[in-house]
Amino acid sequence: MEECGWAHLYFPKLKKLSVIRCPNLHKLPISFDGVAESHAKIEIKGELEWWNNLSWGKDEKFVTKHVNFTHIVLNR
Length: 76
Description:
The protein is α/β, with parallel strands linked by helices and 76 residues long.
């Protein structure tokens, strides 16, 4: 999978997201509007290589402040 849609998806109550075996997914089409206002933390789980290759664009500052990443190791 390289993308999950063409528009930003709005999930104001998003708390957890797991991405497994999607090394070609380089951008999450998620709108973080509303999440920042609530000062909530979002937990994202995935493979470290995938995480390191994500492109956040204008949301990079938000991610640094509001996202906790957990590295998961998969048996291949």
